[in-house]
Amino acid sequence: MNKNQKTGTWKIYAVLSMLFLFIVTGVAFITKIWVLTSIPAGFLFGVFLQKGDLCGSSAFSEVVMMKDYRKVFGLWVLIVVAMVGFTLLDIFRLVTLNPKPFLYLSYLVGGVIFGVGTVLAGGCISGCLYKSATGNLNSMAALTGMPIGILIVEFGPLNGFHQMMKKQVIKMSDGGVISLPEILGIPFWVLAIVFAILTIITVMVFRRKTAAEYSVKSSPVNAWQRIFTKPWKPWISGLAIGLLMIPSYLSSAASGRNYPLGVTHGVAQAELLIIDKNFNHVWQSSDVKSQTMKKQSENPRPGKKIVWWLVLLVSSLMIGSWVSGKMTGQIKLLPKPPDEVVIAFFGGFLVGVGAAFATGCVVGNIMSGWALMSVGTFLFGIVTVISNWITTYFYMMGGKIKS
């Protein structure tokens, strides 16, 4: 048991964190400034990612390196739980489901670059965010390169190529977005239930085959201490993030952004706030925003868009990861060889370029995109995984299969 657990300081972090979340959420409800709810959403997102070490890049690479599918399964649990949650939001008309367009060329090119970059960087964007918060030097270097790659695509020399690829869109015959329900002619809620049932059946089958792995072991600590100070199994983190997706979608929609969790543009826009000026600030729903449109129309302020929901989400994600690391005793600066740090930086740059081309990363395109059944994001996910596996095989494993 580490010193943090012996002294019980985890209790202080736990109590202060819950108090902080309640206060921010309460202020948001009182003031109706819903963008503030992105802070508790991001904080909890960071905690859940760190608890399960649920990095998309690691999940994919570990399948090749260690034949370990637990993190991939954790991601799948996350997606299915979010699907069911989005079904409820749709049924009660709390949000308008917003699948991404089928930008096939963007997803192909972006997925290849992104997949390679995640291996070199040692993580996807969300992975490097929570790993940086707990002291991983390579992740810090990669996180430095990511916004540079994103901004070069969004506003720099690669923007022309980016815009050309975005015009290559496959649509339904009626001009609508291609999604799984549209292709199959089956309602979203039916498909969500089918995926959930199939997942539960699969879990039950494999649980019987590996009963010993799921056996409960005695522990010298109580349940609350295990929750706050011990790592979580990936599927538990996936379940928690999947549930978090539901209020996060509501929070995002109320803040002028009709989409669930995402981090790519939050990372880039956080840097823009430091290096640039003259922005178009997005922080409220279109209904509220329309009330001030007349005032702004007389004196328009063209500039780069800053979505405050994303910026606050990314910032609070790192805080939540740090707090989670403190409670588990995992905050430690991990020095790395200089060559690894340099490679991680350039890997982060590639991750940024790939995510910008693909208009999203593991969080926006796989977690959220798959949960919304966007067919285009399925393509991105498949290309990313294959690219990650090939790079892992040659870069991490030296082109050899480990016995």
From TrEMBL:
> What topology does the record note for this protein and the membrane?
Multi-pass membrane protein
Going by the UniProt record, its keywords in alphabetical order are: Cell inner membrane, Cell membrane, Membrane, Transmembrane, Transmembrane helix, Transport
What transmembrane ranges does the database entry give? 12-35, 72-92, 104-130, 137-158, 186-206, 235-254, 306-323, 343-366, 372-396
Q: Which residues form a coiled coil?
A: none
User: Is Membrane given among the entry's keywords?
Assistant: yes
Question: Do the record's keywords include Cell inner membrane?
Answer: yes
Its subcellular locations are: Cell inner membrane
Entries under InterPro entries matching the protein: Sulf_transp_TsuA/YedE (IPR007272)
GO CC list = plasma membrane
A Pfam family of this chain: Sulf_transp
PANTHER family xref list: INNER MEMBRANE PROTEIN YEDE (PTHR30574), SULPHUR TRANSPORT DOMAIN-CONTAINING PROTEIN (PTHR30574:SF1)
According to its UniProt record, which protein family does this protein belong to?
Belongs to the TsuA/YedE (TC 9.B.102) family.
> What protein is this chain from?
Uncharacterized protein
Q: Which organism is it from?
A: Candidatus Schekmanbacteria bacterium RBG_13_48_7
**Organism classification, top ranks?**
Bacteria, Candidatus Schekmaniibacteriota
